[in-house]
């Protein structure tokens, strides 16, 4: 009950039908709408090094 329930997501836009932010969960590919978000503007979610190969 008191365990953390946060999900790291990527902001993809604003919902046109609900009050909230559309976020993508990269692990599941699911897009969800939520009003409870914390933006980490100075942190990068994706790897900054380009793929080599």
TrEMBL record:
<protein>
    <recommendedName>
        <fullName>Retroviral polymerase SH3-like domain-containing protein</fullName>
    </recommendedName>
</protein>
<dbReference type="InterPro" id="IPR057670">
    <property type="entry name" value="SH3_retrovirus"/>
</dbReference>
<dbReference type="Pfam" id="PF25597">
    <property type="entry name" value="SH3_retrovirus"/>
</dbReference>
<feature type="domain" description="Retroviral polymerase SH3-like">
    <location>
        <begin position="1"/>
        <end position="46"/>
    </location>
</feature>
């Amino acid at each position: 009950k008191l365990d953390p329930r946060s999900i790291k997501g990527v902001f993809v836009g604003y919902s046109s039908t609900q009050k909230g932010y559309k976020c993508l969960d990269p692990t599941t590919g699911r897009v969800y709408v939520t009003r409870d978000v914390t933006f980490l503007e100075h942190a990068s979610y994706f790897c900054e090094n380009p793929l080599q190969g």
